Every structure is written in structure tokens, then in C-alpha cells.
Amino acid sequence: MSENTGRGRQTKEYDPAGVQEFFAARAADWDSRFPDDGPAYATAVAELGLRPGAAVLDAGCGTGRALPALRAAVGAGGVVVGADLTAEMLTAAAEAGRGRAGLLVRADVSRLPIRTGSLDAVFAAGLIAHLPQPAENLRELARVVRPGGQLALFHAVGRAALAARHGRPLTPDDLRAEANLRPLLASSGWRMVSYVDEDTRFLALAVRED
Ligand SMILES: C[S@@+](CC[C@H](N)C(=O)[O-])C[C@H]1O[C@@H](n2cnc3c(N)ncnc32)[C@H](O)[C@@H]1O
Question: What distance in angstroms lies between residue 14's CA and the mean position of ligand 1's atoms?
């Protein structure tokens, strides 16, 4: 398991234990590594335009940094679920009080314990580069969202800045490059409706096809 490089092989051997080990080691100080990201998460959530009462999943929620903004968007009558594979991330989320904003669930996004078509939206920050089979896994996210519902793929830093942070070049096979992401989403039940990749954020929005 390596750091989230955003580089895209379409499939790789799935190693959930490796993913958990990688993030378990980083859970305790995850929030303190990125102390200034809060407003960027709030802005990204706002772009989903969630209505009060809506049901939303934070897929790969980690320490739940997006959950307060998601709760604020859907209000007390809405449903907010944060799902993550790594128990230590969920423990850190609970310790940070994020369980007050949403239900924290240990689950693999490749097989979600969520009814088909029951959600209005999925928010996924920093997740896509960790997915073992991106097309299949994005299809699972589409399964749980109603037709017309939304997906936000977010990162609080753009692709070039992330590559620089990791000391690697940005290559054309990057999964999140627009030319790769658009057809990937289309093959997974999503229609990409907007794409922003700038130094301070990456945000791709997609709508669930009928
Ligand atoms: C880069 S972190 C981002 C965490 C959080 N979304 C944030 O923005 O701070 C990626 C998260 O995805 C989780 N994850 C990776 N693969 C997953 C999977 N197949 N199912 C559920 N969670 C997964 C990891 O455990 C980790 O918490």
C-alpha cells in the first residue's frame, strides 16, 4: 500500500488488509496533518446542493471531516452515513465527535450494506485512488443512489499539487485526469457534469443515470 498517488491502473489486486494497515497508522494524526481543509470541504459539499431531508453517504469518510458540512446541508431530518474500511479512522472520527453529525459504519465501499436507490448523493474525498476496481466500485456507489442523484469526487488539493507533494510527475494514466475520469464514470452509471482541477482543490460532480 502506498500513499494516495491518484495514479490510475484500472484494476489492481485487492488488499483490504493493506489499505487498513496504511490508514490505521495515520488515523490518530490525520486531522492535524490537514488542519486548514475545513472550508474546502464545506465548499465542496455546498456544490452538491443537497436539500434538507436528503440522504447522503460519505464514502471512505476517514475521520469524518466532511460529516459536519453534510449534516448542515441535509439538516436534522436528513440522513448522513459515513462508511470506512479502517476501524482506526472511524475511532478517530468518533473521538472527534463526528458521530454526532452522521452514523459511522465500518464497511467496504465495494459492497455497501445500503439499499439500492436509497440515497440522494455520495460524497467521496480522497477515495478514488484507493479503489481496487474503480469501474466496479463506482458502479456500487451508483447502485445505492437514486436515478438523478449525485456523486462528488473531492480532494482538497489538485492533481498537480498532489503529485508534487508525492514527488512524482503527473502522468496521462492518472485516473482523475478528465479524459480518463469522464469515460470511467460513464461506464459506471454516472454522467460527469462538472470538473475542476486547480491547485487548491479537485472536484468532479456526476449525476446518476436512469
Ligand atoms: C485519503 S483517506 C480520506 C479520508 C476522508 N475522506 C478525508 O477526506 O479525510 C481515504 C479513506 O478511504 C478509506 N478506504 C479506502 N478504501 C476503502 C474501501 N474499499 N471501502 C471503504 N473505505 C475505504 C480509507 O480507510 C481512508 O479512511
Answer: 14
